[in-house]
Design goal:
With about 675 residues, the protein is an all-alpha fold. It is built from 31 helices and no strands. Keywords: Membrane, Plasmid, Transmembrane, Transmembrane helix.
């Protein structure tokens, strides 16, 4: 251990290494992460508590794990920070020295505060567990004690602070704003539709947490602690077993056989990982650290590289069968089997990713970022990861065929991968002590990684539960929906446009699940009032909540990508909007063509290819290229008109839709006949 860390953690030379504070902290995080994952898996297996009681212990462990991991990462980076601080303050003025000293003090105190908050989280949820029967059965009738209310305040404060540290100030500020808005000092003084009678701090503490609502919201925390957690933990285990490494390695091999190179592989890798992780920003940071440098090496401009990864990562949240966190919440809110959400999301996801894939293909050809060093694809590379198809097959079989709950399906998938990978290791590498030790380490690391990746979401789910509970209790949710219908003046298009704007605005800077929940409570009832079917409504707002990750001025997915690519955030946002532009139109298409959501024969088989054709035309117009030539404004305008006909024709007549789609295909075919004949033939090395 170097001097910088020794100074930060105290002089540890006189005590055994395993008793050093940093080592104790590291071990605590590791053990708590493993325990957190095993606790979730064991609940999925045994269902030993009612879900609400299980969720309480889940909240305590999750928030405590997040804080301890936060402190651990703080000290892991302390050497670099101390060195930078020493270099920057050398020879500076006395004022700078004072400022530097204050920052140093804050830098040292903050981890101690975080450790204290971790213990507060464990103690508060232990209190709820020990008093659960009284709080669940008696307190709503006889009332809550002062200690109960203080514990409620502590839980709300923990949710706000953990959210601030994990996801920044936006959601934390919204949570604090909801609390202030609910209070009697603010609510009765608000104008017009915002006015309400107000709630005392005791009512806020009750409805926000200790009444076993708010922080323990039945949908948000109930689904988050079960359906969501089991899949995020599966993602952590799968990554430890090498799933991501295999996807990227296979991607490189596929990219070497395509004229457009690695770009489509970046899209596919982000699709797969985004579906499992359910976080646009985390997916961009994870896969983008590999794919963006590869894109730049191929010659793709840095702002396009950031945009490609950002858009692809954002869309992964709608890709079945997992579809990220928000889809699990959707199934519970609507009250339908999760397989119905999978079916409803399949065609919209296909439309989105096909438009993104075509848009990127056109952009690469337009700017000449192709590669001529083509090699024949080597199928043997796929055999290296063929064992991963077994747990993924179990996931599909249990979810789609057997129709198990996501909790049970996720549990069986975890059990399968933890059985398949050790068998594969023994068969491929031999039953040596080294193989066994490596496999055990992979498994333990996976359990730890699953818990650590879930922990930051616990705080934001708790904070969103507080927001939703308070907005519902004040009546704001109902009044906003009525206001949207009133502003729409009976026009479905206007109501949908207002819902789109609200979904994007509420989603700026927020994770998609948080944005989706907020919009569903405030906006979706207004859309439903216009006779739009319920799943279609939820898919509509979910789609735009997802797209907020690439929408300026926040565009969190693009922001992460632009940092990795070391390029302008503004230029990256512009390119992301260009690539993802069809995504902002597709939700209106499946409202018009409802058979894309609620499958029906033969209409689904007819409308899907017609809308898909319109999506291609819209992509060509936004990129300004149709596969063989750059498009002027007149050609772009023609493609946009035809795209609208192909995507929204049923509003007039199905014949209009079919005619527009046929015209698009003729234009594309005539334009690309020459370029198709000139494609190079791959050469085998």
């Amino acid at each position: 251990m170097n001097a910088g860390r020794a100074e930060t953690m105290g002089n540890q030379s006189s005590i055994p290494g395993w008793l050093a504070p940093l080592n104790i902290l590291r071990a605590s995080v590791y053990l708590l992460g493993i325990t957190f994952t095993l606790y979730t898996i064991y609940y999925a297996y045994s269902l030993f508590f009612i879900r609400l009681r299980y969720s309480n212990l889940f909240v305590g462990m999750g928030i405590a794990l997040f804080y301890l991991d936060y402190v651990h990462k703080h000290y892991e980076a302390s050497d670099e920070k101390n060195n930078v601080a020493d270099d920057s303050t050398g020879g500076s003025s006395s004022v700078s020295n004072v400022i530097g000293t204050l920052r140093s003090v804050a830098h040292r105190i903050d981890p101690l505060v975080a450790v204290g908050l971790a213990f507060l989280a464990l103690w508060s949820t232990a209190y709820v567990e020990l008093n659960f029967s009284r709080l669940f059965y008696d307190a709503p009738v006889v009332g809550y004690t002062e200690t109960d209310l203080l514990i409620g305040v502590a839980l709300i404060a923990l949710a706000v602070d953990a959210t601030r540290r994990a996801f920044g100030n936006i959601i934390a500020t919204v949570t604090v704003g909801a609390i202030l808005y609910a209070h009697t000092l603010v609510g009765p003084r608000m104008p017009g539709v915002l006015r309400h009678t107000g709630m005392s701090w005791e009512q806020i503490a009750r409805d926000g947490a200790i009444g076993l609502t708010g922080v323990y919201h039945e949908t948000l925390m109930g689904i988050g602690a079960t359906w969501v957690a089991i899949f995020i933990m599966f993602a952590g285990i799968a990554k430890a077993y090498g799933l991501m490494d295999f996807v990227l390695e296979a991607g490189r091999e596929v990219g070497s056989s395509l004229r457009t190179g690695i770009v489509q592989v970046a899209v596919i890798a982000s699709m797969i990982m985004g579906s499992i992780t359910g976080s646009a920003a985390a997916n961009t940071a994870t896969t983008g650290s590999f794919t963006i440098p590869m894109l730049k090496d191929q010659g793709v401009r840095d702002d396009f590289a950031a945009a490609i990864e950002g858009v692809a990562s954002a869309g992964g949240q709608m890709l079945p069968p997992v579809m990220g966190v928000a889809a699990f919440l959707m199934a519970d809110i609507i009250g339908v089997p999760y397989v119905d959400i999978i079916r409803a999301g399949l065609i919209p996801a296909a439309l989105f990713y096909f438009s993104v894939g075509i848009g990127i293909h056109f952009a690469v050809l337009k700017f000449g970022w192709t590669t001529e060093r083509l090699t024949e694809f080597e199928p043997r590379i796929l055999l290296q990861g063929i064992h991963f198809t077994i747990p993924l097959g179990v996931l599909l079989y249990t979810l789609v065929i057997l129709r198990f709950t996501p909790l049970s399906a996720g549990m069986y998938t975890i059990f399968t991968i933890m059985l398949v990978v050790p068998v594969r290791n023994v068969l491929v590498d031999g039953a040596s002590n080294e193989t066994i030790a490596r496999t055990v380490k992979q498994t333990v690391d996976g359990l730890y990684q699953g818990g650590v990746e879930m922990a930051p979401l616990v705080g934001v789910l708790a904070a969103m539960g507080v927001i939703i509970e308070l907005l519902t209790q004040t009546g704001l949710a109902q009044r906003v929906s009525t206001l949207i219908v009133g502003l729409g003046g009976g026009s479905l298009l206007v109501v949908l446009l207002l819902a789109m704007l609200a979904s994007i605005l509420f989603g700026l800077g927020m994770p998609t699940p948080a944005a989706y929940i907020l919009v569903v409570i405030l906006v979706a009832p207004g859309v439903n009032a216009m006779n739009v079917p319920e799943i279609t409504t939820h898919m509509f707002v979910f789609y735009f909540a997802m797209l907020s990750a690439i929408t300026p001025p926040v565009a969190i997915s693009v922001a992460v990508g632009s940092r990795i690519a070391e390029t302008s955030f503004t230029r990256s946002c512009l390119q992301a909007l260009r690539i993802g532009a069809p995504g902002f139109v597709i939700p209106f298409a499946f409202v018009t063509n409802n058979s894309l959501i609620y499958w029906s024969l033969p209409m689904t088989l007819v409308t899907f290819p017609l809308v898909l054709t319109g999506t291609i035309a819209l992509t060509a117009a936004t990129v300004g290229y149709d596969g063989s030539r750059r498009l002027g404004y007149r050609h772009r305008g023609l493609y946009i008109v035809l795209a609208c006909g192909a995507m929204f024709g049923p509003a007039i007549h199905i014949a209009v839709q079919a005619t527009a789609a046929a015209a698009i295909l003729v234009l594309l075919l005539l334009s690309n006949i020459k370029s198709i004949s000139q494609l190079p033939i791959p050469i085998k090395n």
